[in-house]
């Protein structure tokens, strides 16, 4: 093939997109549909709990359109990081929805699943080949064992293996966002530099356009570069909007590491072909001396209870730092006196929304706000203790005055009951890569058999 057209109608499966933009992509000659199904953007909970952040109905709505389009056009559909975090349960969840739709629609498509979840014992046996990424520390078996789920982030190779085996639909576990879009054009022999750069630009659908809400994009990749255009006729790609996406989720705006090597766009040239389309050339891909797979793992750090109240008393709002400092002091004293717990037994966070909850100490505007929401997050080793602490703090969250007030103010709880048990709280425990001899060895590929759909 002299060129390959990659259609990315949406940045994440389940986010929704205008159906007419998908039709437009097919009319432009798309050779493959590639969609990301997950992310770590929403924190470690979804990996730790092994559940998706997206609603099944939303995923099914997108999948129905995508499967129909793939069947009508006779082109592959690739979805990576299924179920948000790419766990085995996430792949099976999306696969179940897919097979249900295929049966309902009477579509004959062969589905391959790729599993990326890793066993702690297997990784523990190869600690000498696992390396920390800054600022992580060297990995030990105890850290691996503490993780509820561990996934390896695959490159394009397992996806290519599934496509070469005859899959019409590939549902992959955790994968790099770029690998999802890069797999098919690399399989067709396109130059690695343009392929990987184009894959990075289209990973989030319309985010590289001037109106990200209008739908996705189509990238046409050839030997010298790629051209990118939006699927909505009233939307546009500009050199700035396209180049800016290399700043998204990267440490360096000119380079980005993949399992097989590094994308280098330091000499890339962005040129507007017309008001809607951008041509990019001189992108490079530098193969790595060692193929590596990044590991992601999440573990429970405790159980959390939340309470939320609101302040509109102008006297308190005029000296909010003083009030918050008193609140923190009083919670510690009351919990110690009432429950006999010290600071090592629990932790709590007081966030002042509308004042400095986002920027904290670097908030430049310290003028008194009109109203403030106060979120108390209590974490303890078990749910019962976390809730007990939040209940002890309840009177303070309702009536705490500043030291100079001669009356008790009444603040406004947002919910009844005032305490909401949030359950287990997770943290990412792995920021490491493992050296591998084969780019597919850590992944289990379930290929379609003849007659399977």
UniProtKB/TrEMBL annotation:
Residues 60-399 form the Acyclic terpene utilisation N-terminal domain. This is Acyclic terpene utilisation N-terminal domain-containing protein. It comes from Streptomyces populi.
């Amino acid at each position: 093939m002299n060129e390959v057209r990659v259609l990315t109608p949406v940045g994440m499966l389940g986010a929704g997109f205008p159906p007419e933009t998908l039709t437009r992509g097919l009319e432009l000659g798309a050779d493959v549909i590639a969609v990301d199904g997950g992310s770590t953007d929403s924190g470690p909970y979804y990996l730790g709990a092994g559940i998706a952040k997206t609603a099944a109905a939303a995923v099914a709505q997108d999948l129905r359109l995508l499967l129909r389009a793939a069947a009508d056009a006779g082109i592959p559909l690739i979805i990576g990081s299924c179920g948000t975090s790419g766990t085995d349960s996430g792949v099976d969840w999306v696969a179940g929805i897919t097979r249900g739709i295929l049966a309902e629609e009477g579509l004959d498509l062969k589905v391959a699943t790729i599993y990326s979840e890793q066993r702690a014992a297997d990784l523990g046996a190869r600690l000498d080949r696992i390396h920390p990424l800054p600022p992580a520390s060297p990995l030990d078996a105890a850290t691996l064992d503490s993780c509820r789920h561990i996934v390896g982030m695959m490159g394009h190779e397992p996806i290519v293996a599934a496509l070469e085996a005859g899959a019409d639909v590939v549902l992959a576990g955790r994968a790099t966002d770029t690998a999802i879009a890069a797999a098919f054009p690399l399989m067709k022999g396109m130059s690695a530099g343009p392929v990987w750069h184009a894959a990075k630009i289209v990973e989030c659908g319309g985010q590289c356009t001037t109106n990200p809400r209008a739908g996705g994009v189509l990238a046409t990749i050839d030997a010298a570069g790629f051209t990118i255009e939006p699927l909505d006729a009233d939307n546009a790609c500009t050199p700035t909007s396209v180049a800016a996406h290399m700043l998204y989720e990267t440490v360096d705006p000119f380079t980005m590491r993949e399992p097989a090597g590094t994308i280098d766009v330091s000499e890339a040239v962005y040129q507007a072909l017309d008001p809607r389309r951008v041509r990019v050339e001189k992108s490079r891909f530098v193969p790595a001396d060692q193929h590596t797979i990044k590991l992601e793992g999440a573990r429970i750090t405790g159980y959390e209870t939340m309470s939320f109240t609101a302040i509109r008393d102008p006297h308190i709002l005029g000296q909010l730092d003083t009030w918050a400092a008193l609140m923190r002091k009083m919670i510690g004293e009351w919990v110690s006196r009432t429950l006999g717990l010290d600071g090592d037994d629990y932790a709590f966070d007081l966030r002042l929304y509308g004042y400095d909850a986002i920027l904290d100490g670097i908030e430049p505007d310290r003028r008194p706000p009109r109203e403030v929401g106060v979120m108390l997050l209590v974490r303890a080793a078990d749910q019962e203790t976390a809730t007990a602490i939040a209940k002890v703090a309840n009177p303070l969250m309702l009536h705490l005055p500043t030291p100079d007030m001669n009356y008790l103010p009444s603040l406004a709880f947002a919910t009844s009951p005032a305490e909401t048990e949030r359950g287990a709280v997770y943290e990412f425990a792995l920021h490491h890569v493992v050296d591998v001899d084969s780019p597919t060895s850590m992944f289990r590929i379930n290929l379609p058999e003849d007659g399977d759909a």
